[in-house]
Amino acid sequence: SRYVTAEERVAIFLRLVIYGTGQREAQERFQRSADTISKSFHRVLNVISSPPFYTHFVKLPEDEVPYVIKSNPKYAAFHNARACVDGSLEDAF
Question: For the DUF8040 domain, which residue ranges apply (predicted)?
Answer without folding.
Answer: 1-49
